[in-house]
Amino acid sequence: DVAHYPDAVATLAVNLDQMGFYPRTFAVFGAMRDKDLAQVVRPLLPLVTQWHVCGLPTPRAAKAEELQQVLQGAVVMRHDNPQQALQAALAAADPADRILVFGSFWTVGGVTAQGLPRLGSAHGR
């Protein structure tokens, strides 16, 4: 999801909360420094178990360290780019968990540029 404004993320949070049960939610997040980052992440704080924040290949982007600062008190892993963040989230998630990729178009594009990974699980065999 390319939600990167407080109102859009609030709607995203409502939609996520209305989905079926997921034991854990992992977020892959990268955004521009000029956004109100504290307000952007606020609606998702109660829904996300672990954050995978990443840098983006544009000077406007917040660095992973800056995003981690905004998420004080949350479980946060830092990554250089969206693809690394997604791979780490995939490695940490179980088949019943949910992975949310959101923020900048650069974040979503960085994850989808090589196509979405095919997930293998014991449930699908």
Helix content: 25-40%
Radius of gyration: 14 Å
Quaternary state reads: single chain
The helix count comes to 5
Class per helix and strand makeup = alpha/beta
Terminal Cα separation, in Å? 29 Å
Explain what the structure shows.
The protein has 125 residues and is α/β, with parallel strands linked by helices. Helix content is 34%, strand content 17%. The chain contains five helices and four strands; from the N terminus they run αβαβαβαβα. It has helices spanning 6-17, 37-41, 64-70, 82-92, 105-112, and strands at 25-30, 50-54, 76-79, 98-103. The protein has a four-stranded parallel beta sheet with strand order 3-2-1-4. The chain is globular and about 35 Å long. The N and C termini lie far apart (29 Å).
The gist of it:
The chain has helices spanning 6-17, 37-41, 64-70, 82-92, 105-112; strands at residues 25-30, 50-54, 76-79, 98-103.
Please outline the helices and strands:
Layout: H1 6-17, E1 25-30, H2 37-41, E2 50-54, H3 64-70, E3 76-79, H4 82-92, E4 98-103, H5 105-112
Parallel strand pairs: 1-2, 1-4, 2-3
Core attributes:
125 residues, alpha/beta, four-stranded parallel β-sheet, 5 helices
